[in-house]
């Protein structure tokens, strides 16, 4: 007669004799080794991304800070521009952003040079942040009466990149969840748009409005702008719905969607409360590995022609 515990153990074994947990550990080890072995090409010119989706809470900020940290860890010099009055990217990167801190508001409204405002993130020697403070909440209205109101961030960024003593490889602009003048400034300053899409029911709603706004910007304000990258976030493999969203988005945007999916992960959501990205908070967690893999894909694909 079989021992009952033996039966229980047998039931968790697959036909190749490994348990699901053992398989997961082996898979994580394989991914860690592949990441450790990868060497990422650096772009010859700075690649400037706007991370945008007018839908709130889809992972814009999480994607911005974690991709930036992943690329910095791989040797790139990276700047994050926090263009959201909520200041979440500044928090996650551990940079000062109290109300009296010089910030992106002073740059776009008062013409303060960016070089006087940019801070280095404690996360990495290679990672910089232009912080946002609460003052930015009023900028949307103040911008309306300013000259060249759509170009202000671009002018400041171009000057900064030309005059900074070292070359930057990547710039990520974290946008607020709206399509107002701040987001327009980001589209005008960037060359590439990265759209994070949450793997949930309403994922594709609002996307056509975002894409038609980007087309308008391309036609009238920035002919160099292209939606180069779509990243699926908060993926939960156990739900049919998430898999359906992945399929729909891949069918619609076969060129732009990264192979890497960002899983829903508690470690990812905890990291900002320690003023850290998941890359430094828990480097070997599945969420961290996914952002490192996504960074690898972005680097290897290069900028669009
Ligand atoms: N992969 C993930 N797994 C678990 N939680 C996540 C993940 N990505 C993001 N989150 C959490 O979801 C919430 C929204 O994420 P995030 O702030 O990045 O979205 P957002 O698009 O920047 O939001 P907003 O539109 O308000 O700026 C946050 O609490 C974040 O910690
Ligand atoms: Mg955000």
Automatic annotation (TrEMBL):
Family under the similarity heading: Belongs to the ParA family.
Region of interest (Disordered), ranges: 1-20
Cited function: May play a role in septum formation.
Record SUPFAM superfamilies: P-loop containing nucleoside triphosphate hydrolases
InterPro entries noted in UniProt: AAA_dom, DNA_Partitioning_ATPase, P-loop_NTPase
Annotated AAA domain residues: 47-226
Protein name: Chromosome partitioning protein
């Amino acid at each position: 007669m079989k021992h009952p515990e033996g039966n229980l153990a047998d039931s968790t074994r697959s036909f190749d004799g490994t348990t699901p947990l053992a398989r997961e550990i082996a898979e994580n080890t394989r991914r860690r080794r592949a990441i450790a072995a990868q060497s990422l090409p650096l772009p010859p010119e700075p690649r400037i991304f706007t991370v945008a989706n007018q839908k709130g809470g889809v992972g814009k900020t999480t994607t911005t800070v974690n991709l930036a940290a992943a690329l910095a860890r791989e040797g790139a010099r990276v700047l994050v521009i926090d263009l959201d009055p909520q200041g979440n990217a500044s928090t996650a990167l551990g940079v000062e952003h109290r109300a009296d801190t010089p910030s992106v508001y002073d740059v776009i409204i008062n013409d303060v040079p960016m070089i006087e405002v940019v801070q280095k993130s404690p996360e990495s020697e290679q990672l910089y942040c232009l912080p946002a403070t609460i003052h930015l909440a009023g900028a949307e209205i103040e911008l309306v009466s300013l000259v060249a109101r759509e170009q202000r961030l671009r002018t400041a960024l171009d000057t900064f990149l030309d005059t900074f003593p070292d070359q930057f490889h990547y710039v990520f602009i974290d946008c607020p969840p709206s399509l107002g003048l701040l987001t327009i400034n980001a589209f005008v300053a960037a060359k590439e748009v990265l759209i994070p899409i949450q793997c949930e029911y309403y994922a594709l709603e609002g996307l056509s409005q975002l894409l038609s706004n980007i087309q308008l910007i391309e036609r009238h304000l920035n002919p160099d702008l292209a939606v180069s990258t779509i990243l699926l976030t908060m993926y939960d493999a156990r739900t049919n719905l998430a898999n359906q969203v992945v399929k729909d988005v891949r069918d619609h945007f076969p060129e732009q969607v990264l192979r890497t999916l960002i899983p829903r992960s508690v470690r990812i959501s905890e990291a900002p409360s320690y003023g850290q990205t998941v890359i430094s908070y828990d480097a070997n967690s599945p969420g961290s590995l996914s952002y490192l893999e996504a960074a690898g894909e972005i680097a290897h694909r290069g900028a669009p022609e």
